[in-house]
Amino acid sequence: MLLSWAGTLVGFFTILSPSTSASDGAVYHAQSDHPANVVHRALFERQDGDQRVGIDALDPYLWPGTKTHLLTGESHQQAIESLDALLALEDLDLSVRARVLLQRDLWAVLAWLLGRELDVSGEALAGRLARAMRRVAVEKESLELLEGNYASAVTSRRWQKAPTKDARPFLPPDLLAKEAGDWVTLGKPGPGSIAAPVHVAGFGGRSAFFVKIRVPGGRDATLRYLEKLGARTLTVARDGTYFFRGDLPHFPVGTTVALVRRALAITVDGQRHVTPFVTQIQFRHYLSLEAPPTDGMRTDLTPFQQVFEFELSRAAWRRGESGGLHALDRESRGFPSIFGHGVDPFESEGHGEEGVVLETCGSCHAQPGVYSVATVMGGMSGPGAIMAFSIGEERLAPEPTVDAVEIDRLLKHASELDSWKRVARWLEKVGQQ
Ligand code: HEC
């Protein structure tokens, strides 16, 4: 079965019930009624029956198909009023970290809004969101001094340092080490190529994504494996169509791959900057190189791969709890945030789309061994497929790189995305007013 990712399956999820301790919405500032927190509630909170959900969710509960929320009625009014109150502040009284997180969230909402035709009220909201993004922006120099949250998450000792037999969540201390750690960052050869184009585009270039791999034996063993993989052309041509060859060298059992998401910020002079704020990490750890049996769309990866996801809670980080990162458990449910069908589950009859997040990984990563590494396969594959194809395009194996190089490539790549171009136009427009 051959599938392309775009529009067919569910990828990243927005989690339904984030840490309940965040329910007072004190996400950027300790005072729950600080105007920034009020803005967060106005933009993120949704009504689910008699429950209010969405506060401190990693991504706002907004979809391409959202028809009324924030666009009309009371939710629109509240968004406008809360943004006006924020813009009226003489002293923001927010830390640099809070300003970065708030800007990131405003950016997500603005990008969503600009993905549609705007009427007068849409324009009124877009103008305020763009002004607020500029108002909370910080200088490049301050961003360069920021400390990330990953080290605090590791030193909190809440999680294992490496995979365990009983599949307990882990955060390896050297996952983000600049050069000397066991983990190697994957890059794609060729001008303009990045390791995770699907996720970068899915989030409109607002997040940076880094793909990492660790083979048992550490850094040297990992580099040796990548060299072996890189020596092969991944595809073979037949009648103008490229087929993945079926004899790619596998990494050994015990290999782990990671996808690390980091927040971007926009400086006072409109430059994008990749911050050290880790907002999400996914891991897959290989217990077997065989393909798990599949029933078509959904595939249970266990006991072939252990899967994990960590997410940032702004409120937990503000309170100093383990860098704000928490591991999703086996029951955490969520709605698709990218790659979904774009329908707003809160505006449609009985939202049937929420799923157990860790049970979805098999939809896209169920091939045997190296063939389940989507960065190798280049985003054309599906459950059980080895011979994925892509017409007229030659695939090259990923190669080792370092995060700093990937950041340069990624920023260039993302400046071509329509989503960024639309946001940049609005930032410029309100800057001239
Ligand atoms: C809709 C398909 C889809 C689903 C579902 C999905 N992923 Fe992925 N994943 C991808 C794609 C595509 C990439 C390659 C990066 C890119 O191009 O953005 C990727 C990359 C990764 C990577 C980096 C290594 C690699 O395979 O390239 C990890 C780790 C990962 N995903 C883990 C997970 C976990 C854990 C889950 C479940 C919580 C999951 N993924 C669910 C599509 C998916």
Describe, in plain words, how this protein is organized in 3D.
It is built from twelve helices and 15 strands. By secondary structure, it is of the alpha+beta class. The chain has one domain (13-432). The strands form four sheets. It has a seven-stranded antiparallel β-sheet with strand order 11-10-9-8-5-4-15. Helix 2 runs parallel beside helix 4 and helix 4 packs across helix 12. The radius of gyration is 21 Å and the shape is globular. The termini are far apart. The model is unreliable at 1-10 and 17-21 (pLDDT under 50). Heme C binds at residues 5, 9-11, 196-199, 209, 211, 257-259, 282-284, 307, 309, 339, 357-358, 360-361, 363-365, 373-375, 379.
List keywords for this structure.
disordered N terminus, alpha+beta, 7-stranded antiparallel β-sheet, 433 residues, 3-stranded antiparallel β-sheet, single chain, binds heme C
- Which kinds of small molecule does this entry bind, naming each only once? heme C
Low-confidence stretches: 1-10, 17-21
Gyration radius from CA atoms, angstroms: 21 Å
The tally of beta strands, per DSSP, is: 15
Beta-strand share of residues: 15-25%
SSE layout and pairings?
Elements: E1 13-15, H1 35-44, E2 46-48, E3 51-53, H2 73-88, H3 96-113, H4 120-136, H5 140-144, H6 150-155, E4 184-187, H7 197-202, E5 207-214, H8 219-230, E6 235-238, E7 241-244, E8 256-266, E9 272-286, E10 305-312, H9 314-318, E11 325-327, E12 333-336, E13 355-356, H10 374-377, E14 389-391, E15 399-401, H11 403-415, H12 418-432
Antiparallel strand pairs: 1-12, 2-3, 4-5, 4-15, 5-8, 6-7, 7-14, 8-9, 9-10, 10-11, 12-13
